[in-house]
Protein: Tyrosine--tRNA ligase
Amino acid sequence: QEVLGEDKLAAILKERELKIYWGTATTGKPHVAYFVPMSKIADFLKAGCEVTILFADLHAYLDNMKAPWELLELRTRYYENVIKAMLESIGVPLEKLKFVRGTDYQLSKEYTLDVYRLSSVVTQHDAKKAGAEVVKQVEHPLLSGLLYPGLQALDEEYLKVDAQFGGVDQRKIFTFAEKYLPSLGYAKRVHLMNPMVPGLTGSKMSSSEEESKIDLLDRKEDVKKKLKKAFCEPGNVENNGILSFIKHVLFPLKSEFVVLREEKWGGNKTYTAYEALEKDFAEQVVHPGDLKNSVEVALNKLLDPIREKFNSPELKKLTNAAYPNPSKAKPAEKGTKNSELENVVPSRLDIRVGKVISVEKHPDADSLYIEKIDVGEPELRTVVSGLVQFVPREQLQDRLVVLLCNLKPQKMRGVESQGMVLCASSDGEPRQVEPLDPPAGCCAGERVYVEGYEGGEPDDELKPKKKVFEKLQADFRVSEDCVAQWKQRNFLTKLGRVSCKSLKGGSIS
Structure:
């Protein structure tokens, strides 16, 4: 998408082949958007470049401790195996690549001294700005996050490369490196950037947002389920993760894309130029359902060799050890009930942003509303709630709310309720109630998660006898700045914090 230092690049190529590196912090599991840099790495190798892949294990720890230190070694091994499997899946010869771990050299005396030298010239403002789109942003940032951009800049010198390749989201770190490396007497490097593929929910595909991405080891039925729910509005080519994946992954790899259709809709059609496909989709010649089905088939062809490789007992064991499932209960000890040991964590709750489509009074209860709430394609939930005595009906119409979606549906005065609108409420008298507000700009269907519990799949349905929601809800509170929290950890969407209007210190139910 962008190149910084093109003149220098041209000058190097007049004398010799380019030395380039691509790095990845070993935190959340790599997902299908990683095929974008992988396909470009294939291009670099075909062009004769010397390519180094860096597994940045120390960076992973510095990024707000996304990966616990004790898991770093396991996750680095997982990344190495899965990325090699990806490259093999698209036909990249591994013998031409060099693989390096950050801790192989980042703990050396020389590197450590350069970290201190760099910290003596870098301002706090520049360090924070450089990491704004890469390092996890929190209200009270750790010092480690400010060190992160400096380490990434120094990697260019210690890996002895001419250029660094990364996503366009790394641009601020790249310009930081260009500014500060010369202050240590090191050369300014070339920087090349690939575009970021939007996730299935329309924003950047992220390892920490389960609903936005397809994992490389997802089963075929999971791929189908996630693609079915993906944002792909008829005729809309903006923030369309399905189209972007075709453009940036499938077309570069295959030079064509086949839309699979039944004969009654015109039969299969092969596109040899992405622009033609986008034009047909914009004009609604291509239906979203056909597009999703076609991507599903093409994607599974890429994923099958990776799944097969990771089906071995050794790699299954590695995967489970590197990414332990937080929602699984520990084995019960003798004389101890399972329910006492069950791991009750917020990621088990399927909380989403919803948009109220219509509101009406319950036919058999003056104290209840019946609300139709859109929670993303293609779902519409009927929710019965008691907001009638606290919130006027007209204030709910077209409003964005926060909805718990995986409670077992239950009938309330004869009407089945398929979710719960989460609200803040005051503890005093008279009682006040305010529906929680997602950040401005959110869309129906976006996942709401608790800070630090971004990973993990929610339960398909919460079992009433287990009282998972009730146990978690006991620690739901509103902070003094009106932010919804669980044990002082914020409720978040990809656009920021969930809050309420005014009920400081209130409870949430």
